[in-house]
Amino acid sequence: MLDIKFIKENVDTVKAAIKNKNEKADIDLILDLDEERRKTQYKYDVLRAEQKKVSQLIPQLKQQKADTTEILAEMSKISLDLKTISSDLNDLNEKLDSLLQWVPNIPHQDVPVGKDETSNKFLKEWGKKAEFNFKPLDHLALSEKNNLLDLKRVTKITGSGFVSYVGEGAAIERALINFMLDFHIKKHNYLELSLPVIVNRKSMYGTGQLPKLEEDMYLIKEEDFFLVPTAEVSITNFHQNEILSHKQLPLKYVSYSPCFRREAGSYGKDTKGLQRLHQFNKVEMVRLVKPQESYQTLEQMLIDAEDILKALGLHYRVVSLATGDLSFASAKTYDIEVWAPGSEKYFEVSSISNFEDFQARRASIRFRDENNKVKYVHTLNGSGLATPRTMIALLETYQQKDGKIDLPECLTSFI
RNA sequence: GGAGACGUGUCCGAGUGGCUUAAGGAGCACGCUUGGAAAGCGUGUAUACGGGUAACUGUAUCUAGGGUUCAAAUCCCUACGUCUCCGCCA
Questions:
Q1: Region A177-204: what's the mean pLDDT?
Q2: A124 and A34 in one domain?
Q3: CA A253 to CA A285: how far, in whole Å?
Q4: What does the pLDDT average to over A76-98?
């Protein structure tokens, strides 16, 4: 959510952001409504002040046995007027609020402008594409050889777009999760949280998944609850509606969770194996920081995620997302893409974003600074990492000629 | 799922329709006092949106949303949450 004052003072910036992010939001209508709301609020305040003043006189008048018929009649009229005005005010607030929900965050000035991922900017890479003296297999062939996954039976339990890890496959996935969690906790000093993966509507608004992505979410109708598409939702909303002390900041959290995505609109895309799933596991990092620290923190979180791939010895590259590829709530995002030699493709395994105060405003997460001023925190999150695609790269990179997988030592100690 | 109790500020806690401008206490901050500390004393202590150069000031917020009333923390309805008991299930 953007501050209405900010919108008012930066109309052109906001309109440009909406256009560059391929969003639709009617800023002119918002400004008109805000003006009207302000006027209505003032009318209400004045009349209400009058009502309170006179109401306080009534008991005195009654005590003096004065005739209050006339004054009561007058007050009755004020009361009615107030009702009308306050219902207008409610309508205006509601309308304004629902429009503001659709205004995306402003991209940071460093973010390349462009309408889709073809404008993403290459930043750096680490390691080299693995080379083989035989023709490397892709992860599907490898998992078949080693019996790591079952992609057929799983459709009986649920349907397509789900995976079952079997035997050593399940062990590898579990090792990955434990390895990553441990790494962030011990080496990067994050605090582990284990939170619900079922959240209410308010939380989904808080982190900005709603209203835009409702179609992409699994909904539990009876309760109006959602399955989280990422642990970011649970972690960030952990502090929903709080005023923290500056002494508590920065907060660094890491959490493992399954993630649920309907992937509506991407049927038939990347359906092969582990590429795109309705349910997958992910280790997620979230930080709440003071505003002046957030961009430095973004760089640190990128390094935290990179460290995992380095430890696993997987070649990757980092790109900075263009405005059109940026998520609704993000001001700046780095994607880490890992190389999978058998598939001969880079796969996105991490997305690290700075939301500045966009989520903090929606979820109302504030802090009292050194001068006792209440300000919004900045929120950031990053995958560290998503397991299925990491698994693809892992299997394909460490395959041997005989089709066996020779896993790096950092993982085998977790198996 | 059934029955009941409860929900007040940072926390505890008073408050059954107007004398509440939410008492009182604790905590916290600052000051006085002290060689230093503690105790004591004094002062301050929410958030949001308006108005004003400012001191200051108007409105809203007692879980949330509705209702009754000239007037609601207080009465009524609904939702949510917490706790207790019962039932059911791990």
A1: 94
A2: no
A3: 6
A4: 90
Return the CATH number at A55: 1.10.287.40
Helices A294-312, A387-397: axis angle to 10 degrees equals 40
Annotated catalytic residue: which of A320, A351, A353, A383?
A351
What pLDDT, on a 0 to 100 scale, did the predictor assign at position A349? 97
Q: How far is the CA of A297 from the C1' of B50 (A)?
A: 37
As a whole number of angstroms, the distance between CA A252 and CA A250 comes to 6
pLDDT of residue A20: 96
Residues A90 and A230 in one domain: no
Q: Which domain holds residue A13?
A: 4-100
Set A37, A143, A232, A276: catalytic member: A276
Give the least confident one: A2-16, A253-267, A339-353: A253-267
Q: How far, in Å, is the CA of A126 from the C1' of nucleotide B23?
A: 67
Cα separation, A409 vs A411, whole angstroms: 5
pLDDT band at A246 (very low <50, low <70, confident <90, very high): confident
- Domain match, A163 and A53 both: no
Whether A124 and A237 map to the same domain: the answer is yes
Please give the single-letter amino acid code of residue A360: A
| A87 labelled catalytic | no
Query: Residue A267's pLDDT band (boundaries 50, 70, 90)?
Result: low
A30 and A170 both lie in a single domain: no
Give the pLDDT confidence of A143-159 residue by residue, as tens digits: 999 999 998 999 999 99
A338-357: average pLDDT? 97
Q: Does nucleic acid strand B have an atom less than 7 angstroms from the CB of A403?
A: no
Distance of A377 CA from B53 C1′ (whole Å) = 31
Q: How many domains does chain A have?
A: 2
* Cβ of A45 less than 7 A from strand B: yes
Is A139 in the same domain as A284? yes
